[in-house]
Amino acid sequence: VHQSKLDFFCKLGYSKQDICKVLENLGQEALEDDVLKELIRVGSKPQALESQVQPSLVKLVARGSCSASPRSKWLGEDGSDSSDHLRPIVIDGSNVAMSHGNKEIFSCWGIQLAVDWFRERGHTYIKVFVPLWRKEPPRQDSPIADQHILEELEKQSILVYTPSRKVKGKRVVCYDDRYIVKVAYEKDGVIVSNDHYRDLQNENPEWKWFIEQRLLMYSFVSNRFMPPDDPLGRHGPTLNNFLSKQPVLPEPKWQPCPYGKKCTYGNKCKFYHPERPHQAQLSVADELRAKIKVPLSKGQEEEQCNCSL
């Protein structure tokens, strides 16, 4: 009985000396609950608790996650700020707001959703361009929803109003798209818009390349800002690499051909064939045609003649 109780409390982490002292005081027939109460009263602690000097900094993360917090995964290996590795973001405010409002209402909440999405990723340079006349009270021909969001973003130095004025009762508006492309080009950032800026592409060849390579399109799904995972198409970079200054190139993965040795595509097959080391063989049909065109040797001709006789 003494040995069984000793083993039991040793598994709980208590030292043998404390257990023996308590058993001597209470007797060998003492109940386990009484022994445990006496150990606690004496002040004995399990060794696991005594060795735990500092609280553990390890946190549970979701399955498939790379780090403990969404921001830490964008930090560099040297612990530098994530803004050093992420591109600046320039948002076409009018395009985003009208897209969120189904092209009927200038929805400022859509701009807030886009800004919050990039903030959560760790982007620190975020600029939103909106014409100055959007500060005016909404009218029937230009309704605006949640206009107070524009004031809040302006206080945070995120929203920038492009100039506009009235001349003899007519509104003179500067071309805000030019501001958007120019700032994004100078900052080597990313343009967030569903507009293609074709007029600006024709105006400047450098802007043409930049717009084609740095334009990030998006969609709103149930008040959720969702850019595509492949901004430049199926064979282009991933969204993470697209938004990063230092993209991480994935390792090439060779997918085996599902047809195996029965594949008839030959060198046109895009899959991997272990039996074709140089992946430059002709298709089966081309191989058969080539064999037919090869002239027979003299020995083979004599054999065919003897067979015919």
Automatic annotation (TrEMBL):
<dbReference type="InterPro" id="IPR040546">
    <property type="entry name" value="Rege-1_UBA-like"/>
</dbReference>
<protein>
    <submittedName>
        <fullName>ZC12D ribonuclease</fullName>
    </submittedName>
</protein>
<dbReference type="GO" id="GO:0004521">
    <property type="term" value="F:RNA endonuclease activity"/>
</dbReference>
<dbReference type="GO" id="GO:0008270">
    <property type="term" value="F:zinc ion binding"/>
</dbReference>
<dbReference type="GO" id="GO:0005634">
    <property type="term" value="C:nucleus"/>
</dbReference>
<dbReference type="InterPro" id="IPR000571">
    <property type="entry name" value="Znf_CCCH"/>
</dbReference>
<dbReference type="InterPro" id="IPR051101">
    <property type="entry name" value="ZC3H12/N4BP1_RNase_Reg"/>
</dbReference>
<dbReference type="GO" id="GO:0016787">
    <property type="term" value="F:hydrolase activity"/>
</dbReference>
<keyword id="KW-0255">Endonuclease</keyword>
<dbReference type="GO" id="GO:0036464">
    <property type="term" value="C:cytoplasmic ribonucleoprotein granule"/>
</dbReference>
<keyword id="KW-0862">Zinc</keyword>
<keyword id="KW-0479">Metal-binding</keyword>
<feature type="domain" description="C3H1-type">
    <location>
        <begin position="251"/>
        <end position="276"/>
    </location>
</feature>
<dbReference type="Pfam" id="PF11977">
    <property type="entry name" value="RNase_Zc3h12a"/>
</dbReference>
<feature type="zinc finger region" description="C3H1-type">
    <location>
        <begin position="251"/>
        <end position="276"/>
    </location>
</feature>
<dbReference type="Pfam" id="PF18039">
    <property type="entry name" value="UBA_6"/>
</dbReference>
<keyword id="KW-0378">Hydrolase</keyword>
<keyword id="KW-0460">Magnesium</keyword>
<comment type="similarity">
    <text>Belongs to the ZC3H12 family.</text>
</comment>
<dbReference type="InterPro" id="IPR021869">
    <property type="entry name" value="RNase_Zc3h12_NYN"/>
</dbReference>
<keyword id="KW-0540">Nuclease</keyword>
<dbReference type="GO" id="GO:0003729">
    <property type="term" value="F:mRNA binding"/>
</dbReference>
<keyword id="KW-0863">Zinc-finger</keyword>
